[in-house]
Amino acid sequence: MLCFSGDGSLMMNIQEMATASENQLDVKIILMNNDALGLVHQQQSLFYKQGVFAATYPGSINFMQIAAGFGLDTCDLNNEADPQAALQAIIRRPGPALIHVRIDAEEKVYPMVPPGAANTEMVGE
């Protein structure tokens, strides 16, 4: 099973790494890390003209070390000579793993629902 998550989302549910490890679940967490609360950052930059507030972290969180502490295998695709081969290898390996991918905080995720809107009012790029 593949679970795509951002760093903000992972921090809200990080204890589930313990569950995955304790039960040796074959779950691969693909962490798209922008060192920010991506949804908050995106909404503030797109819909509010006052700038971005409280959407980024003062430092960088070492998710690889945290995952290893829970007993998960880890792979940092940004530090691999051959990211595709590394990705294939860790996905094939049984058991839980964290696959770390650093992305730019300015990247946007679409479609998205504007603040206060219904899910039928999604906007694209």
Automatic annotation (TrEMBL):
Domain named Thiamine pyrophosphate enzyme TPP-binding: residues: 2-101
Keywords (A to Z) from UniProt: Transferase
Keyword Magnesium carried by entry: no
Any GO BP annotation: L-valine biosynthetic process
GO cellular component: acetolactate synthase complex
Similarity section: Belongs to the TPP enzyme family.
Name under which the protein is recorded: Acetohydroxy acid synthase I, small subunit
Protein species of origin: Salmonella enterica subsp. arizonae
